[in-house]
Amino acid sequence: MSEAQVYTHTIQSGSNRENCEAPGRSILLTDNLWRGAGIALVVVLWQLGVNLGWINSFLMGSPAGIAEEAWRLLQSGQLLDDTLATVSATIAGFLLGSVLGSVCGLLLWFSRTTARIIDPFMVALNGLPKIALAPMIIIWFGSGMFSKIMLAFVATFVVALLSAYQGTHQIDRNMINLMRSLGGSRREIFTKVVAPATLPWIISAFRLNIGFALIAEIGGEFISSDRGLGRMIFVAGNLFNLNVVWVGVIVLMMVAIALYVVVSKVEKRLLPWENK
Amino acid sequence: MNAPVSHALPLEQPQAIAPPRQSVISLEGVRKTFASPGNDSVEVIRDITLDIKQEEFVSIVGPSGCGKSTMFNIISSLLEPSDGKITLRGSDPVCGARIGYMLQRDLLFPWRTIIDNVCLGLEVKGVSKAKRYEMAREQLARYGLADFADQYPNTLSGGMRQRVALIRTLITEPDLILLDEPFSALDYQTRLVLEEEIVSILKEHRKTVVLITHDIGEAIAMSDRVAVMTKRPTSVKKVYDVGLSRELGSCLKARSDVRYQQLFDRIWDDLDIQVAGGAA
Fold first, then answer.
1. What ipTM was predicted for this assembly?
2. For labeling, which of A107, A119, B189, B248 is most exposed (least CB within 10 Å)?
3. What DSSP string describes B54-89?
4. Which residues contact B30 (CB under 8 A, 6 or more apart)?
5. Residue B78 and residue A180: Cβ atoms within 8 Å?
6. Which of A124, A106, A102 is CA-nearest to residue A115?
7. SS3 content of chain A, % helix, strand, coil (to 5)
8. Are B58 and B52 in contact (CB under 8 A)?
């Protein structure tokens, strides 16, 4: 049940993050100043090291080189195209897998028998590195973006399903008994207790799935693709163009942060009772 | 099958208990055994025979591990007894859930606002939204919780949450209200205040109440009758007529009455609790 621990941890760290955000504007500003200063320091030292010959820019890249490549890729429009391709496929696969997985996980609440029978399969699929399926999926669906959507879907579906299903197990028995004593049907118990009680678990699976979807997407692009940040990184890496690799990596980090922020915003909307 | 014996206290004046009323719930020879691994069945409840009348407040007190939660589940009809009969006669079977209960934990749904928590039973019964909100607002206002209607439960104190849980229970107008140690999670002062308040609310609503607890004091302070249970397998050992809070009009006064201590000592003896390290 290490899975459960991971999820619980995520939920907890979620609430801790709330506490971190609680401090006022001025503290937030100071934090951001320190963060900016940290980044600036690394960039300056890196560039200085390259200029003084302490750092091999061929193997490490250099801030100036990265900026130059970024500018070039931006102007040619290639960076935007690749980013859009990667982001749209990731989001499509992520949403498809996370939503369908959560719904299936929730519905398993209705049938313990089904859940029991498929449990070992789900555990096996969950343990499988989904990227191992990439060659097959690319053979079936081609090297275009559709196969990447399918990969991200596969990577996120099982996580969402298991998380939602485990969430339905954590529900206070007494709440269900209360609904029964009030004369609630199974459907009412599901809509009024099971689904809302599981929502925090579902959201935490969504948060984990951002990472899983991106791994699947980039991995898929490495193997075979015609577009995308993963392809850009892969091709540049093969050509030893480390600066372009860095551009891809930095954009990917920004994408991950943006998706994370979106999920957090959605969480706030969906779980208003968890906001203090 | 030892029949429960009624022990009236030597009182100077006759008890202020109303004339015989219709019984709301009666348990006759209720028995419950559970199958356990290894083909043996475990007898948790041997024989409970108890008749609870309209508007009566009856407490069931037992030593710990006396099958309290099994009793609760049987009375609240979440569990079927293995043997025996439970009869529930309702006053208004159309509108109400027949048995409403309140537990140690308030069981407010954290994802529902206070008013939506209060409305839960009405919602399940299919009462229209406008109607149920109207009913809920009226009740919340009555108990000084109107300002909290749109807040989530996590912003309320433990005592307030229990009050909301009580309103949620009352609003469906159940025939019988079953309380399962509803105060044990609260601090002592809140507990005394809420004890008082809940008894007066329940009397005002003319409710029939069963309180399951292991707190002897609470049972005496609140009840008309106290049924003392034996250890497992559980049966009714004795039934005491109390009625102190009804007679004196307050649980706090009941607690300071001389009869309170007498009853306390007797019930304590009945429970036969072994105090570790105590003088044998």
1. 0.76
2. B189
3. TT-EEEEE--TTSSHHHHHHHHTTSS--SEEEEEE-
4. B45, B47, B48, B49, B74, B81, B83, B84, B85, B86
5. yes
6. A106
7. 85, 0, 15
8. yes
Best mutation target, A182, A187, A202, A269, to test chain B (most B CBs within 10 A): A182
**Pair B33, B79: CB distance under 8 Å:** no
Query: Are residues A273 and B153, on separate chains, in Cβ contact within 8 Å?
Result: yes
Q: Taking the complete model, does pTM exceed 0.80, yes or no? A: no
The runs of H, that is alpha helices, within A52-144 are: 57-60, 63-76, 78-107, 112-127, 134-141
Cα angle for residues B16, B20, B24 (degrees, 5° grid): 110
Task: At B69, list the tokens.
Answer: 């939660």
What is d(CA B43, CA B41) in angstroms, rounded to the nearest whole number? 6
User: Within 13 Å, how many C-alpha atoms sit on residue A139's CB side?
Assistant: 5
**Per-residue pLDDT tens over the stretch A246-265:** 999 999 999 999 999 999 99
B279 vs B275: CA distance, rounded Å: 8
Helix A195-223 to helix A78-107 angle, to the nearest 10 degrees?
140
